Amino acid sequence: MTKTRDESALKKLALQARRHIVEMIYIGGSGHPGGSLGAAEILVSIYFGEMNHKPDEPKWPDRDRFVLSKGHIAAGYYSVLALAGYFSCDILNTFRKLGSPMQGHPCMLKTTGVDMSSGSLGQGLSVGNGMALAARLDNKPYRVYVLMGDGEVQEGQVWEAAMTSAHYKLDNVCAILDYNNLQIDGYVSSVKGIAPLKQKWEAFGWHVIEVDGHSYPQLFAAYDEARVTKGKPTIIIAHTIKGKGVSYMEGVADYHGKAPDEAGYKKAMAELV
Amino acid sequence: MADKIATRVAYGEALATLGEKYPHIVALDADLSKSTMTVTFAKKFPDRFFQMGIAESDMVDTAAGLATCGKLPFASSFAIFASRGWEQIRNVIARAKLPVVLALTHAGVSVGEDGASAQANEDIAIFRVLPNMRVVVPADAPETKSCIEWLVQHTDGPVFVRLGREKLPVVCPNGYAFQLGKALKLRDGNDIAIIACGGMVHIALEAASALDAKGIQVRVLNMASIKPIDRDAIIAAARETAGIVTAEEHSIIGGLGGAVAEVVCETHPCPIRRVGMPDKFGESGKPSELMLKYGHSAERICQCAEEILKAK
Question: Is the entire prediction scored with pTM above 0.95?
Answer without folding.
Answer: yes
